[in-house]
Write a structure and sequence with these properties.
The chain has three helices and nine strands, in the order βαβββαβαββββ. The protein is an alpha+beta fold. It has a single domain, classed as 2,3-Dihydroxybiphenyl 1,2-Dioxygenase, domain 1 (Roll). β3 and β4 form a beta hairpin. The longest helix has 12 residues, at 16-27. InterPro entries: Glyas_Bleomycin-R_OHBP_Dase, Glyoxalase_6.
């Protein structure tokens, strides 16, 4: 998207291809631009930039399987989805995971669930259908 910037977020990743594919498929954000050190995913109202960690930093990070959740953060990105059942399946196929259904809650008319991506980054989804 060229022109005026819209709302967005930046995620630093060790494997930008895997992480950008995860968010593209999970959140329905098309990849609009790729460079060796970043991938841009965009909708008309949101821009997610997945940036490669500097090699010196990436070398010090080991991503386990399943990944260790990086919960010590004050900010959590939130994505709208159609429903949690489908999103839960997509996340697991792509190396992430939603919390168990018993940990979901209602907020402002949406069913809400926390999750993590293939590198352990925490995010939240909100579904209008449940």
């Amino acid at each position: 998207m060229k022109g005026q910037f819209v709302a967005g977020a930046v995620i630093y990743a060790k494997d930008i291809q895997r992480v950008s594919q995860f968010y593209s498929e999970l959140a329905g954000l098309p990849v609009t631009h790729k460079e060796p050190d970043y991938v841009l995913l965009e909708s008309p109202s949101f821009q997610l930039t997945v940036v490669a960690l500097a090699p010196a930093i990436a070398a010090k990070i080991a991503i386990s399987s399943p990944p260790e959740r990086r919960e010590n953060t004050a900010i959590k990105i939130c994505f709208p989805v159609k429903n949690l059942v489908t999103t839960r399946k997509i996340a697991e196929q792509l190396g992430g995971k939603l919390n168990e259904p018993e940990r979901e809650w209602l907020f402002q008319g949406n069913r809400v669930c926390d999750a993590h991506d293939p590198e352990g980054n925490i995010f939240q989804i909100r579904a209008s259908e449940f």
